[in-house]
Design goal:
Blueprint lengths: L4 H8 L3 H8 L2 H6 L6 H12 L4 H4 L3 H12 L3 E4 L2 E4 L1 H12 L7 E6 L11 H11 L7 H9 L11 H7 L3 H16 L3 H14 L6 E5 L5 H10 L2 E10 L2 E10 L15 E3 L4 E4 L4 H10 L1 E6 L2 E5 L2 H9 L4 H11 L7 H16 L5 E4 L5 H14 L2 E5 L4 E5 L3 H12 L2
Antiparallel strand pairs: 1-2, 3-4, 4-6, 5-6, 7-8, 8-10, 9-10, 11-13, 12-13
Length: 417
């Protein structure tokens, strides 16, 4: 189970015709279960055979959340006082269960051994390192184009605020973010998008133990991107067909998008109740992420030490990162799978404190000689709706910058009289 909002949002925004196409696909209806939690999957199976009343379902908080998800996807409909599964989805799902080995886009060629192919296992890490350093990494233009299109970097290849937010996502969310972005970039026609999205669903059912070939047309650029991302490994082989050697494009599965890979091996962060941070890593990427919200005091080959401070967190907030994203990131990679409540509370307090403070440029007018001049000035500025703030007791007014010339001219003509 992955339960990714990015997939749900993508499907939700499709036109009704495109949704109908997806919900009529046997491969899609069976594969899409992988994004749901156990409660939602149980509800779908219940709805295959029954039509429970809304009242009976709303008593269970867990079910209420599942209903919201299915409603967003238009997988359920209300008829009278009861809930029904979408008819197209229901019929297609039954057919998919009856035909578990259905193939539309790919066909198995042969079994491979672990020694047959040598993979470059660092492709995705190279992308992450490029985002944080931009140096000494030769990324394919396909990757660069998608990073720019998805606004993770700008035209100068500098990381954006969206890029900083992206870096704090779990890896499986990062994969899907890039895949959906590439799908929209290379398949600008929705019909083409739907076809390639359904091929992704079938791709998720394939085994990494076999070599596969394409039996239906997919977007070449999109699948080249999947290869560059490290999801598949493309190979070409010559086969003898009708006394002629034919070159066929084959591939092997390297990374299953629907598998939420175990993070136990990648836990490397320790945070104490006194806000001290220890990150046991030699990865340039991981060190850069820690530096995003931590004040670093010492850097060693396999360890960085620092502190969470209001200033270091404010620096992260200024880049568009939220307290919840930082907390989720630390929890994901914490050595003990959690962080002290005092640390969580303080991070949230620092963010809320920042939200209470607004900085606006303006011009200060003060030192009025008498109350009458001050009142005239305030009345004029109020008529122009240009007052940011004022202090009547101290006869001080702050006005918006764009009105300064008008106010200055008024002051010269009226108050100087």
């Amino acid at each position: 189970m992955v339960n990714l909002n990015i997939i749900i949002d993508y499907i939700r925004k499709l036109s009704q015709d495109d949704k109908d196409t997806l919900y009529s696909s046997q491969i899609f209806t069976v594969s899409i279960l992988k994004i749901f939690d156990d409660s939602t999957i149980r509800l779908i199976f219940d709805l295959l055979l029954t039509a429970p009343s809304i009242k009976s379902l709303q008593k269970n908080e867990e079910i209420k959340n599942s209903l919201k998800i299915l409603l967003r996807l238009q997988l359920i409909v209300k008829r009278g006082a009861n809930i029904y599964l979408n008819d197209k989805f229901r019929d297609s799902f039954f057919q998919g269960i009856e035909n578990p080995n259905i193939k539309e886009y790919f066909e198995k060629v042969e079994k491979i051994s672990n020694n047959d192919l040598i993979f470059d296992c660092n492709k995705f890490d190279d992308i992450l390192n490029f985002l944080v350093s931009k140096e000494n990494i030769n990324l394919n233009n396909n990757i660069i184009d998608v990073l720019i299109q998805s606004k993770l970097i700008n035209d100068h290849k500098d990381i954006t605020n969206n890029g900083f937010e992206f870096l704090l996502k779990p890896k499986y969310e990062q994969y899907w973010y890039l895949v959906i972005s590439a799908l929209k970039y290379y398949c600008n026609d929705e019909k083409k998008q739907i076809k390639n999205f359904m091929s992704l669903m079938e791709l998720s059912n394939l085994s990494s133990e076999f070599v596969y070939k394409f039996i239906n047309q997919v977007d070449k650029n999109f699948y080249t991107f999947l290869n560059e991302l490290g999801i598949i490994y493309s190979i070409s082989e010559k086969f003898l067909k009708q006394d002629k050697f034919v070159l066929e494009n084959l591939f092997v599965i390297k990374h299953n998008l629907f598998v939420k890979h175990d993070t136990e091996k990648s836990r490397y962060i320790l945070i104490e109740t006194n806000f001290k941070v220890y990150a046991y890593t030699s990865s340039t990427y991981e060190k850069s992420i820690i530096q995003l919200f931590t004040e670093i005091h010492q850097t060693l080959p396999n360890l960085i030490k620092g502190n969470l401070t209001e200033e270091s967190l404010s620096n992260a907030f200024s880049k568009g990162v939220t307290s919840q994203q930082i907390i989720n990131f630390i929890k994901t990679y914490s050595l003990f799978g959690d962080i002290p409540d005092t640390v969580i509370n303080q991070i949230e307090i620092w963010e809320s404190k920042r939200k209470r403070i607004k900085i606006l440029p303006g011009y200060l007018y003060s030192n009025f000689l008498n109350l009458v001049d001050y009142q005239k000035f305030v009345k004029f500025c109020a008529s122009k709706d240009c007052i940011i703030d004022r202090d009547d007791e101290r006869r001080m007014v702050i006005i918006k910058t764009e009105y300064n010339e008008i106010v200055k001219e008024y002051t010269k003509k009226q108050i100087s009289k």
